[in-house]
Amino acid sequence: MKNKNLTSFTYHLDQQYGKKGSKTRDNYEQGFEAFKLGVILQEMRKNKGMTQEELAVKCGTTKNYISRIENDASDIRLSTLMRIVSLGFGAHLKLSLEMYA
Fold this sequence. Notes:
Blueprint: H1 9-17, H2 23-47, H3 52-59, H4 63-70, H5 78-89
Helix pairs in contact: 3-4, 3-5
C-alpha cells in the first residue's frame, strides 16, 4: 500500500531552503558539507583509537582546534586539512567537485 503523504528529502530542502542554486540553499549545502567533514575526521580519529590531543600533537595543532573542526565550529584551511589527513592519519586526501548545471 502506497502512502500518498510521503515526500522526498529534496522536496523538504526545496521548501525550507529554496531550490538548488539559490543563495539560501547554497549556504545550507556549504554548512552541511562542513558538518560532514567534521564527522568524517572524528570517525577517522576514533577508528585510529586516537584522542583529540594525540591527533593535534601528530599534526602540529591544538586539541581545541581539532575539537572545533569536529564540532563544526571552525573553518578549516585546505593546508591544515591535508596535514591532519597525512600526518595525523597517515592517509591521502582525495577531493571531488560537483558542477552545477
